Amino acid sequence: MGSVLYPKLQVLDVVAAVIVDGDHYLACRRDAGLDAGGKWEFPGGKVKPGETAQQALRREIREELGVDVEVHDMLTSSQTTKSDRIIDIRFYLATAAERPTHSDAHDKLTWLTADELPALDWATPDLAAVGQLNSKYALELSAPMLN
């Protein structure tokens, strides 16, 4: 229940894909005209009512990047408070059927190793995922899979 002093904030359920190709991760720079324009992020978007996180992520990546992804485990999550809303974002590891070459919401795409990720100017919500990749997950994700 909100009040004048503590209004109830809208919570946005957002998902993002940390797309992995070998030991490289896809980073996307937001178009200058968008909120947080010029900042780097992992691609994704809002979860629609009735969608699972995985369904939303597959839809968003198809819309933004034009490729299909297989969604794997959740990497991490973060919450960011904007003036009138809370953004609750979950980051999932994903693999793409092919490397995307363009984006409708980004002006640049690049593939970087975990060590290179911190050099970019990241959107605040994505810093949690960058930190995870740059630590324990960097070694695990680049190691060959054993069956």
UniProtKB/TrEMBL annotation:
Its EC number is 3.6.1.55. Keywords: DNA damage, DNA repair, DNA replication, Hydrolase, Magnesium, Metal-binding, Mutator protein. Gene3D superfamilies: Nucleoside Triphosphate Pyrophosphohydrolase (3.90.79.10). Residues 10-134 form the Nudix hydrolase domain. GO terms for molecular function: 8-oxo-7,8-dihydrodeoxyguanosine triphosphate pyrophosphatase activity; 8-oxo-7,8-dihydroguanosine triphosphate pyrophosphatase activity; 8-oxo-dGDP phosphatase activity; 8-oxo-GDP phosphatase activity; metal ion binding. GO terms for biological process: DNA repair; DNA replication. It catalyses: 8-oxo-dGTP + H2O = 8-oxo-dGMP + diphosphate + H(+). PANTHER family: 8-OXO-DGTP DIPHOSPHATASE, NUDIX HYDROLASE FAMILY PROTEIN. This is 8-oxo-dGTP diphosphatase. It comes from Propionibacterium freudenreichii subsp. shermanii (strain ATCC 9614 / DSM 4902 / CIP 103027 / NCIMB 8099 / CIRM-BIA1).
